[in-house]
What does this fold into?
Amino acid sequence: NAGVTQTPKFQVLKTGQSMTLQCAQDMNHNSMYWYRQDPGMGLRLIYYSASEGTTDKGEVPNGYNVSRLNKREFSLRLESAAPSQTSVYFCASRRTGSHEQYFGPGTRLTVT
Amino acid sequence: QQQVKQSPQSLIVQKGGISIINCAYENTAFDYFPWYQQFPGKGPALLIAIRPDVSEKKEGRFTISFNKSAKQFSLHIMDSQPGDSATYFCEGTSYGKLTFGQGTILTVHP
It folds into this structure.
């Protein structure tokens, strides 16, 4: 049981490049989330998916898109990376009826 | 929009001491108040949580105190240990979505 996995662990992009962050969970959870973590800001919700086939914006969605590929996988795409998107990105999942979210190990992204 | 305010930003405690982290929230729709613990290079993990109809919850050395009228809650770590050194986040939950506080970096010196 791997829990929540994220790839890649580290990534460096140049301004304007695009990339997709991958997330998968093997706990059969319905809800999945993408957060970014910046110093002194806590974690801020980018997008979430309450169930397969649905996605909704969180607090800081600008510059990002998401795809809920199936129940297991939830990807985050940066179409044109900007230095302001330098951050650590966490994916999380949650079972319906529970408040607890399970987090992946994170992706550290640097945009130069 | 910061709906959960956490203090202090950093805290240094001697081994065996008491660590106290405070949070204040604005959103009265929050129905669950978890604390997450995060070690360097790892994702956050649930430590302890409380519902708003309870004033205190204790699990081992960790206690949450909740004051609904003041919209404040706090985490107390008794007999703090070097292994407790981590970043702690308070949160409010509404409709399954977490709103995080800014985090407190706790360092426990041996």
